[in-house]
Each structure stands twice: as structure tokens, then as C-alpha cells.
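Final report, section 2: Outcomes. Of the targets proposed, D-xylulose reductase is the one most frequently requested by collaborating groups, and we therefore present its record in full.
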Amino acid sequence: MATGANPSFVLRAVKDVAFEDRPIPTLKNDTDVLIKIEVTGICGSDVHYWQHGGIGPFILKAPMVLGHESAGTVVSVGSRVTSLAPGDRVALEPGIPCRMCDFCKGGKYNLCAEMRFAATPPYDGSLAKYYVLPADFCVKLPEHVSLEEGALVEPLSVGVHVAKLADVRPGESVVIFGAGPVGLLCAAVARAYGAMKIVVVDISQPRLDFAAKYAATHVFNGTHSRDPKVNAQAIKEQFGLGGGADKAIDASGAPPCIQAGIYVLKQGGTFVQVGMGPADIQFPIVEMAAKELVVKGSFRYAAGDYKLAVELIAAGKVEVKSLITGRWKFEDAEKAFQETLEGKGIKVLIKGPE
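The predicted structure is given below as C-alpha cells.
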């Protein structure tokens, strides 16, 4: 294993990872901070790049450091940084936008065409000893929030962004397809926002059992039927949703779930797609139009989402520790990736490197 100044876990090619010694990154301007990475969570996108070498238009063409769900400790700061100091513990928001386009100026920097997002080719990720970010993309963690919780801020921010797009309100019913980390965190945020009925749908009973203890008020096993219409009707009948749910969120990317999400909604309901799946699917467009549904896509997170995610954890509104099912040393990073690939547990963390 690499033991130099900045050991890094690098994807060299499809299914080819290695530890490399890389230079300690330098501050690019006087508003940057240098962070020692303490904990990094493994995302499904990391595993996908490892196994397939690309996601959509983002194709691996050169070795790339993996990882983007990180928390760490500030080592040094640029001369103009006043919000952070060495020793502060932070959650890293791992994308740097151009700050100049209309999307950036409007707070929707997740849509910036020039976004430099960690562990998305060609940009290196944060699964290394050191990483540099602008100070305003580091959210300071309160004393009672752990670094492990800090690493869960990234996927929680995805859930926060989804809940904002769905406009989840107190007393509403929300059906969430997919009981992976993002789906579970969408459920947790929906609960924090006051949703009255939160139905989580999956085909894995162990994940549904966890969802029922975590944030769902009801769970539904999607193996009930191969027909999305039948499943949608069963959900409405079993959980007293009447004419349908107020909001539906797909965090699975599975076409039958997307279809069921449209069928399960009431007239005028809102559907948000956050899970990635096949590029093209069969979509119930007549159902969507006839019920005058609001249909939205959700991509990463935008202005205020990271800060709100930290505040939800700090206030005890969302609990994330129980999602952590695996902890690995940096030198065992490939084993951690294999565990995630095999679908063992929910969220796997990698410590260090020391």
C-alpha cells in the first residue's frame, strides 16, 4: 500500500484499483482550505465506475482517485478564509461549480455545465489523505456531530434536495421506491418535514425491515406483483391512500418502480426521480397527463442543502448512524468496495488514511 505524503485510492481502469502516492494538493487560491480526510463513505457511483469505467457521458480516460462522501479536519486555510480554522471538523461538499453561469447565480449550481465534481471523470475524488476545497463548500460540524455522521451528510443532502423538489409538507403521504441509502434518507427527511404516511417499497425484505424501524410508517414488498399497476393499487388500498399519494419518489432507477410511482399518485400529485437507471424506459405518459402530475428530476444537491443536512443531524431531526453497517481501514478499501458491490449492509465507510 502507498505510505507516502498523500496516499490515494485510485481507479486505473475497469476493475483495476491501486494505492498510489500522490503530491499533497496545494491551495489554489486564498479562499481554499486543505483538509485531512478522516472518513469516506462508498457511493453506488464509485462502485459503478470501478466495475464499468463510466456513467453516461462521464467516461474514465485516465487514473482517477475515487470517493466523494467525505468528512475531515482542516489543516490549513487561505489568507482570506475567516469561517474556518485549522482543527475544525468539516463535511465536504464535493463539487466546485463555475460560480459565473445563470444556474450558479440562481443557486442551482448542481446544473452548472462546468461543475468539477469529485470522482467524476476527469476529476479526482477525496479517498486520499488530503483534499482541497473552497472554504464555502466545507460545512463545519458541531461538536456533538461525529466525523462518521459528517460523511453521511453527502447522501443526506441528496434526500434534502429531493424533499425540496417534491415540496413535502406536514400531513402528506409519500411513497418512496428503493430502500438503499438515498431512499432511506429521503424517508427520513420526509418524516422530518412532517409527512404523515411514508411508504417505502423494495424487493429486499431485510431492507424493508430496516426501513420500518428507521423512518417508514409502512413498507411494501414489490415482489407482490410484476405489474406496476397492481402494486400501485395494492399500496393505495393497504395503506389507506384513497385516490393516491401526495408525493412519490423513485430512488431505485428500476422501470417498474418508476411506472408504479406514476400510478400510485393522486390527481395533481408530484413525482421526483432521483435514482439512476436505464437511459430509456417505457413511461405511462397518459396516466401522467390525465392526472396532471408534476414530474421532476433530481440531481445531487444545490444551495443550502448541505447546510440543512448538517442542521437536521445536529438537531436530532434525522439520525444517520444506524445506516452505517461496515467500517474498513484505508488499506482494505478494495474489500470495502467489494462489500458494497455485493449489497451487504447499507452504508460502508472507509477510515483514514492515517
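The two ends are 12 Å apart (CA to CA).
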